[in-house]
């Protein structure tokens, strides 16, 4: 084999490998409470350990060559948890924003938040905006954190915004299509997830990325989120690589 043929073959093999790595991984981080209960610890101990797992997962995503990572950290339904747990979770978020963002920025991570941030205290809203601003130039990993997020509310807000644009004459309803609608979602500009992982053994979407995950491969893992490791992440990527993605079409 000539040098150039060999180089092409190597590049093709590398290309195939890269194609098997999902560009965008979304994760429903579930099981913090059960992890804590199994150890006779308060739920906040599970959430704290869960925050450590977030750090590990960001590092794993970078190492594995994933470009986009979206994590479900707080759902719009989570506000209905007991006040003490909501206080603990928002306190953990405050702490995370104050202690982790500089390091994420130094590691080339760009952070964005989706969800109804108006429900958080003013200082948290300010820290969220600062974190987005401070990391806006980073390219290594795009991390999106869903906070006070619910997919149905997101879709309704997008429908309202599109209807308002139509009423204002900025668009004609007949021209509306998938791509235009997606541009009104909070994830506008972010590619759809290729792989969606849920931990803790539960097998449902819980109002997460309902529009965006239309063609995502779903992987459910029997591990509580605080125990989630790079090996679990790699196992999910390996499962993804084994799947045949058809996007509704039949193979030739
Ligand atoms: C689900 O476990 C997890 C949550 C509701 C919160 C997720 C939060 C973290 C992983 C830590 C904080 C992250 C950041 C970015 C600050 P659960 O409480 O529903 O567990 P259970 O189903 O076992 O009760």
Report on this model:
By secondary structure, the protein is of the alpha/beta class. The protein has a single domain, classed as Decaprenyl diphosphate synthase-like (Undecaprenyl pyrophosphate synthetase, 3-Layer(aba) Sandwich), CATH 3.40.1180. The protein is built from eight helices and six strands, in the order αβααβαβαβααββα. It has helices at residues 3-20, 32-38, 43-64, 83-106, 122-134, 151-167, 178-182, 230-242, and strands spanning 24-28, 68-75, 109-114, 141-149, 195-198, 217-220. Strands 3-4-2-1-5-6 form a six-stranded parallel β-sheet, sandwiched between helices. Helix 5 links the parallel strand 3 and strand 4. The chain is globular, with a radius of gyration of 20 Å. It binds farnesyl diphosphate (FPP). Residues 29-34, 47, 50-51, 54, 73, 78, 92-93, 96, 145, 200, 225 line the site of farnesyl diphosphate.
